[in-house]
Design goal:
Elements lengths: L2 E6 L2 E5 L12 E9 L2 H10 L10 H5 L10 H17 L4 E10 L8 E13 L6 E12 L4 E12 L8
Antiparallel strand pairs: 1-2, 3-5, 4-7, 5-6, 6-7
Length: 167
């Protein structure tokens, strides 16, 4: 969640993220901007992570697959979808506590534009850290045409208001 904090006369600092109190169970946050995946993104990420499956970077091989063209590396789409949510959900987070139920439900191809949205599933105060809370969200990745290609749950430790780090 973007907001602005007054830091002086007619001077404001852009801030991002949410504190524990800013989350409401059932709310859905649409994360923007979207991202169009390029061939370079896919090739570099695939090679950087040492994923040598040719379906990601060998057009001749991929043409013979059931998809007929290269698939975008699913770890890349996961990373981009998570990244899209950071400025809204976890910019102020202290830690990611866990990832559950990651599902890949449709292929993503070079040239696809993807978006993300997250629903708040639960929140509770931390029993061991009185200035922090635990929030669980379900995030989905969607293509520009509305096709959902991914979903996962993420649990984060976030500060309560007045206990976040200012920068």
């Amino acid at each position: 969640m973007q907001s602005h904090t007054a830091v002086g006369g007619q001077r404001y600092r852009e801030t991002f993220g949410r504190c524990f109190e800013d989350f409401t169970v059932g709310d859905i946050y649409e994360h923007r901007p979207g991202r169009t995946i390029s061939e370079t993104d896919n090739t570099w990420f695939t090679l950087l992570t040492m994923n040598t499956h040719p379906v990601h970077f060998d057009f001749a091989y991929a043409a013979k697959s059931e998809f007929g063209k290269p698939l975008v590396n699913s770890c890349l789409t996961l990373s981009i979808v998570v990244g899209m949510s950071v400025s809204d959900l976890s910019q102020k987070a202290i830690a990611n506590l866990g990832w559950n139920d990651i599902k890949l439900t449709a292929p993503v191809f070079i040239g696809d534009t993807i978006y993300a949205e997250s629903e708040v599933l639960g929140k509770r105060e931390s029993s061991s850290r009185p200035t922090q809370g635990i929030v669980t969200v379900r995030t989905v990745g969607k293509k520009a045409d509305g096709t959902q290609f991914m979903s996962f749950e993420r649990t984060m430790l976030v500060p309560k208001q007045g206990h976040d780090i200012e920068y």
